[in-house]
């Protein structure tokens, strides 16, 4: 059986202040250097992994608003006030407000291409001190 994987064209380069990492584990190692809240805009799939490797009380996550996702997050230790259950697309202004509301010192995003809103997220990153992009 053939395996076909669709990959979106990458839009991020080496922007100032943006740290590119290859894995969730590498992102967590990097994030351990910083104190303060971390905003995860990588979705629900890796949120439990971040919760296991970092102090879950420091995390704030943006996910799709589904019952399955909410159960996954609460089972991983996230509280309701750490979850932005919302469906995009997101403007630069909304991203900035969400990052500020979470009092994030770091944002983790993923290279999701134009359709994943990576340009808007990237334009929002000056609102935080540290930003990571995981592929």
Structure report:
- The chain has 135 residues and is of the alpha/beta class.
- It contains five helices and six strands, in the order βαβαβαβαβαβ.
- It has helices at 24-31, 47-53, 67-75, 92-101, 118-124; strands spanning 18-21, 37-40, 59-63, 83-85, 104-110, 130-134.
- Helix 2 links the parallel strand 2 and strand 3 (59-63).
- It is globular, with a radius of gyration of 14 Å.
- Mean pLDDT is 80; it is low at 1-9.
Number of helices: 5
Low-pLDDT residue spans: 1-9
Shape: globular
Average pLDDT score: 80
Briefly note the structural class of the backbone: alpha/beta
Largest sheet: 6 strands, parallel
User: What is the helix content?
Assistant: 25-40%
Helix and strand arrangement:
Blueprint: E1 18-21, H1 24-31, E2 37-40, H2 47-53, E3 59-63, H3 67-75, E4 83-85, H4 92-101, E5 104-110, H5 118-124, E6 130-134
Parallel strand pairs: 1-6, 2-3, 2-5, 3-4, 5-6
Helix pairs in contact: 4-5
Concise overview:
By secondary structure, the chain is of the alpha/beta class. It is built from five helices and six strands.
Main features:
135 residues; 5 helices; globular
């Amino acid at each position: 059986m053939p395996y076909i994987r669709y990959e979106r064209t990458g839009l991020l380069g080496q922007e100032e202040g943006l740290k590119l990492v290859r894995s969730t584990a590498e992102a967590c190692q990097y994030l351990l250097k910083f104190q303060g809240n971390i905003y995860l805009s990588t979705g629900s799939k890796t949120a439990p992994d971040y919760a296991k490797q970092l102090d879950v009380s420091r995390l704030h996550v943006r996910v799709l608003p589904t019952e399955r996702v909410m159960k996954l997050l609460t089972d991983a230790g996230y509280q309701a006030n750490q979850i932005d259950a919302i469906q995009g697309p997101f403007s630069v202004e909304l991203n900035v407000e969400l990052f500020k509301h979470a009092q994030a010192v770091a944002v983790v995003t993923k290279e999701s291409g134009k359709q994943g809103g990576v340009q808007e997220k990237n334009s929002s990153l000056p609102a935080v001190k540290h930003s990571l992009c995981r592929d």
